[in-house]
Amino acid sequence: MTAAQKPPKPQKPTKAAQSPAKARSAPKAAAKPAREDKAAKRAKYRAAQAEITKEIEESNREWLERTKRRPGRPSIYTPELWKEFLRRISGGRSMRKVCSDPDMPGTDAIWEWITTGPRDNGEVVVEGAVLAAQYAQARQERADALVEEILDIADDQPTPDNWGNIDKAHVEWQKLRIETRKWVAARMRPTLYGDRIEVKQTGQVTFQLGIQRQPQSQLSAEVVDVDAKPLTGKGQAPDQVSGLPVPEADAAPREGDQ
Predict the structure, then answer these.
(1) Beta bridge partners of 124
(2) CA distances from 203 to 21, 148, 208 (A)
(3) In this structure, which long-range contacts are made by residues 19-23, counting pairs with CB atoms below 8 Å and at least 24 apart in sequence?
């Protein structure tokens, strides 16, 4: 084999090829930002976790506040409590809505006060009829408040949309509100807001009966003949008036009749 035919000698590998681990760790300047990004992510995660924990604690605190035992509704009658109840009824609210307020007694207590009267140690404080009359007056005043609400609803102008159209459903809803209030007001105060207006007329009519007495000198006496025939016309006997024969009462009996 000549020198020209000899194969070339293999070249020695470089240092980078001999140690690939050193080659991977060579760009150290580029690896530092990646480590810093991981640390920032960990910090953000920990901050988010702390924020979530804080929100959970606040939610639990609010739940504990809501579930605390609240004082019960007032069930003992007082004039101030009854006056406030009537004021809210007169303002246009129903008994159910007023009694749903936490500072008002329940409907059962109100009906008991109206029917039998509130009691204190078994004794009636106020008669139920008195409270019932006051409640009836408050209901009439509530009818006046409902009429005022009707005017406010009618004067409320609907808001058109971007194209200038008015929502028909909103208009129908306003009509329903007006009709409902009219019906309730007519039932609460029919003499003023009812469909039929009843007119009651009261008064007194006096009749006076007058009898005039004539003097004794103007009276005339008349002599009546009992045996005379009664006259039915102008001086005529009954047979002359009707034309019928008069039976003879004093006629003698016949021979065949004896």
Answers:
(1) 119
(2) 123, 35, 17
(3) none
- The answer to whether 111 and 156 are in contact (CB under 8 A) is no
Q: Residue 124 belongs to what H/E stretch?
A: strand 123-124
Q: Is 186 in contact with 193 (CB distance < 8 Å)? A: yes
The per-residue pLDDT for range 191-232, each reduced to its tens digit, is 888 876 566 666 676 666 665 665 665 555 554 555 555 555
Contact, 157 vs 105, CB < 8 A? Answer: no
Q: Which residues contact 75 (CB under 8 A, 6 or more apart)?
A: 105, 106, 109
SS3 182: helix
Angle between the N-to-C axes of helices 128-155 and 107-115, in degrees from 0 to 180, rounded to the nearest 10 = 130
**Total-model pTM:** 0.48
Strand partners, 123: 120
Region of 243 on the Ramachandran plot (φ > 0 left; ψ -120 to 50 alpha; else beta): left
DSSP category for residue 120: E
SS3 percent helix, strand, coil of the chain, rounded to 5, is: 50, 0, 45
- List the alpha helices (DSSP H) in 67-119: 79-90, 95-99, 107-115
Identify whether the C-beta of residue 63 lies closer than 8 Å to the C-beta of residue 56: no
